[in-house]
Amino acid sequence: MGRIVVSENVTLDGVFESVDGPGDWLGCVDAADRAAWAAAGVREARTATALLLGRRTYEWFVARGWASRPGDWADALRDLPKYVVTGTGLGTPTWANTSALTGDAATGCADLARRTDGDLLVLGSARLLGVLLARDLVGELRLTVYPIVVGAGTRLFGDTAATPLRLVESRTVGTDLTRLTYRPRRTT
């Protein structure tokens, strides 16, 4: 059985998406931190079994050329099977190894996790994260916290119901980024 692992970038005040779109706060850290962040992304992708994405996040990656972008991180993501949770369909996927998961998102993700060995890595996909948390399907939550307060934008957890978590790892990435890893604190 697989495990759903969510990996997100957030600001100190919990913003996931800026008012201008998906958050890109790399400008607030130096080149060494950006390189450390990218190396961590490559390692994470190489240890995953598949990507699990919401439709909007999938379209964001495609629009930015990840299907043909050069580099280790793009190669690692390109090689992974990609499952896109969508209620509207995808048409013909333009990123190799992509399949659509239609129907009830929670049921589809739970079924995929049951028939997969290893980690299903979720990047972005805030709406999907809400569904996964509500149905207790997240096995691990990894937050890379950027040292910036932006004040406005979409909060990662929005109206998510209370979800008890326990910290299992805390480390720096480069010198200014913090990586916090949580697992659900389940009562059963």
From TrEMBL:
Gene3D superfamilies xref list: Dihydrofolate Reductase, subunit A (3.40.430.10)
InterPro entries: DHFR-like_dom_sf (IPR024072), RibDG_C (IPR002734), Riboflavin_Biosynth_HTPR (IPR050765)
Domain spans labelled Bacterial bifunctional deaminase-reductase C-terminal: 4-177
Gene Ontology MF terms: 5-amino-6-(5-phosphoribosylamino)uracil reductase activity
GO BP field: riboflavin biosynthetic process
Database matches in Pfam families: RibD_C
Protein name: Deaminase reductase
Organism, scientific name: Actinocatenispora rupis
Organism phylogeny: Bacteria, Bacillati, Actinomycetota, Actinomycetes, Micromonosporales
